[in-house]
Amino acid sequence: AVSYYEQAAGEKPDDAAAFVALDRLFASVNDSERLADVLERRMELEGEPDVRVEVGMRLAELYEAQLGRPEAACDALRAVAEADPEHRGALQGLSRLYERQGQWQELVEVLQRRSHESERVELTHQLGNIMERELDDELSAIAVYGQILRIDAAHEASAQALLRITKLADYREDAAAVIEPYLRTQERWSDLATLLRLRADAMTDPHEKAEQLVALAEVHEQGRKDPNAALDAMARARRGSVRGGGRKPRCGPRRGLVSACGADLRGGPQGPQPSGRCA
């Protein structure tokens, strides 16, 4: 039977029925190499999208699982995705193979196409993680993580990723612009204090540093309820203000210890005093 259909396919290369028969026969005897050739030919001949999808998925599985040819499997899956751009199995297969082979840019493109799936948040986080860790594209990763937090404010992995990026001097301000409003809204005062301290430590302008330290003191006092930490931050702000010439920090209304120390920081008739703590 095999020789008969092979002869028929040889005489009529466009005879789809002969290749369907060969498909069935080679599959029955587990002849993977010859079956792959037949399925490739069927993909070339088949014009019906649903059949192309079914044949392409079988071909991809054959290349990946039986023949160990991941590149050929990707080719088959891409053909399926062309026939059905939202085919979940094809896109998932491409994601798996691209990740396994370290084809990060290709994986990013596939994950972007999968953003409509029910696992949208996790897929988007995976996209951000690849941009950050594999493509060294921190700015794009920041945008992706911020998008996730707008969709799901409870997505801790994305919040932690942004906090991690704030530790990188080159990207601290970009990440802070996204994560700081989120931390305030979520009342994550300890994380916010850490961020403000990082920013203050990196600042070289004494006036800007003083203003950031006053903001840090407010978080310690009003958010974390830690007056000692608030006083320490205010003391640092006062020392910085003295070095900078006593210019008034650009700060909003203050309350409590910060208000009292802020008045001293801004200076009375004799200007700010270089003492360590507020009385």
Structural write-up:
It is built from 15 helices and no strands. With about 280 residues, the protein is mainly alpha-helical. The C terminus is likely disordered. Helices cover about 75% and strands about 0% of the residues.
Strand and helix layout:
Blueprint: H1 2-11, H2 16-28, H3 32-45, H4 49-66, H5 70-83, H6 88-101, H7 104-113, H8 120-133, H9 138-151, H10 156-165, H11 172-185, H12 189-202, H13 206-223, H14 227-243, H15 256-266
- What's the rounded overall pLDDT mean? 86
Q: Pairing-aware structural class of the strands and helices?
A: mainly alpha
Rounded to the nearest angstrom, the distance between the terminal CA atoms is 100 Å
Percent of residues in helical segments?
Answer: over 70%
Q: Quick one: overall form? A: rod-shaped
Q: SSE order in H/E notation?
A: HHHHHHHHHHHHHHH
Our count of helices gives 15
Would you report the number of β strands? 0
Give the biggest beta sheet: none
Q: What is the radius of gyration computed over CA atoms, rounded to a whole number of angstroms? A: 31 Å
Extract low-pLDDT stretches.
266-277
Could you tell me the strand content as a percent range?
A: under 5%
Short characterization:
This protein is an all-alpha fold and 279 residues long. Helices cover 73% and strands 0% of the residues.
Keywords, please?
single chain, about 280 residues, mainly alpha, 15 helices, disordered C terminus
